[in-house]
Design brief:
Strand content: 25-35%
Distance between the termini: 52 Å
Radius of gyration: 18 Å
Largest sheet: 7 strands, antiparallel
Order of helices and strands: HEEEEEEHEEE
Number of helices: 2
Helix content: 10-25%
Structural class: mainly beta
Length: about 180
């Protein structure tokens, strides 16, 4: 029994340790309320045991010139995406847009998107292949009142299609925009 428990713990510990490590990530940035502060924005990368050449592109939008950065082993680097915020933030709602970021690396990395505004900071950890799938449950709060901002500061979810001709069905328990 001890051997099984040890194997079970070791197996799942390895899975958890690599949950956010990958060589490819898809991400679409939410529209952060600009009147509360939505700038600067960064992608942050950390290389593990190997040097990594990281390229960020928006495959569906030719007006975004791919950004490439070299991340030495066991170190972190950032790309400032603030100049591109208008083609990165996913707005307006209820439309199919071409804002999905693709991050590709030559070695395993971790990555996150950061809104680095002092009074409105937020970090979105990217999950790599663990974020891919066809069935998701999206929790949201509906108790706390959000201060009135323009545009309004409500919960949101963003979907990135990683393949052409993807069809999405959204089933909600309440009305949404």
């Amino acid at each position: 029994m001890k051997k099984f428990a040890l194997f079970f713990f070791g197996f799942f510990s390895c899975m958890i340790a690599h949950a956010q490590t990958d060589t490819a990530f898809w991400f679409v940035a939410p529209e952060v309320t600009s009147t509360h502060g939505d700038r600067p924005i960064y992608l942050r990368f950390t290389a593990l045991e190997q040097d990594a050449k990281v390229t960020v592109s928006i495959p569906a939008n030719g007006s975004f010139f791919p950004q490439t950065i070299f991340v030495p082993a066991n170190s972190s680097r950032s790309i400032d995406l603030t100049p591109y915020i208008e083609i990165i933030e996913n707005k307006p709602a209820d439309q199919v847009l071409n804002h999905g970021l693709l991050i590709q690396s030559s070695a395993f990395i971790t990555a996150y998107y950061e809104v680095a505004r002092p009074n409105n900071t937020d970090i979105f950890s990217l999950k790599g292949r663990n974020a891919l799938g066809t069935d998701f449950l999206i929790p949201s709060q509906n108790i706390m009142y959000n201060v009135t901002f323009t545009p309004p500061a409500f919960s949101s979810f963003e979907i990135v299609a990683t393949e052409d001709n993807t069809h999405i069905t959204i089933t909600t328990s309440n009305n949404i925009t």
